[in-house]
Structure prediction request, 272 residues.
Amino acid sequence: MSGSRDIWEITQEVKNLPKLNDPVFIEGLPGIGNVGKIAVDFLAEELKAVKLFSFFSYRFPHSVFVNEENMVEMPRIDIYYKKFRGKDKRDLVLLTGDLQPIDEESCYSFCDEVIKIAKNLGCKEIVTTGGIGLQNAPEKPRVYCTGNDEKLMKKYIKKGIMVERDIFGVVGPIVGASGLLVGLGNLRKISGVALLAETFGHPMYLGIKGAKEILKVLDDQLNIGINFKKLNKEVVDLEKEVMKRTKDWAAASSKGKMEVAGAKKKEASYIG
Prediction:
């Protein structure tokens, strides 16, 4: 078996690593509904987070993206950080990207490298985010919480926050980085929780409402100070874009020509 450093080329994007105040590590890679990616991308942009590390691997898919300037871009996975003024707020370390590892060895080695970075930056807490695929789009998505530390989970399920604890039987395995970072975190002695929001389980659907619910939980717990008015506007703009991109899919779906991925008889499917 190859070593993780043989698989991953990790570039430090800043000269010196920042000194962070009790930082929290938050993951948001693509998955069902791209719920986590939407949430963490918004945080990185809204907070003007600074890129800290970038990942490259020959195990990335053999494809590139074409951006709005019609230029080619390689797929990326990046880690950002946000340092707040004063000591009343905990600093943030954010993981986001265009994709996540798809084979088992790459995913395990990637999560191990990420945990090493998180611990080196002083993170004692990992929060992963993802979507729970349903057969229909929820009007008000529920957020579920699981984790590897009972005390930490209680903080996120405290009274007044709409977070569900009873996730057993709602979902199957948590596939990908959303699950492994929490699972491996337990082995590597770092506490972690996964925040999972309901969304429509179709691969073309963007779980914007689910992402918003996760951001509400993070804002309440970490006192980030998210501008939800700005978020609401961006949600409206994004929904318009989604409607344009999915009108053909919606027409086909109404005729029963498409199936919801992973949801045949059960209401909920995998997360990640």
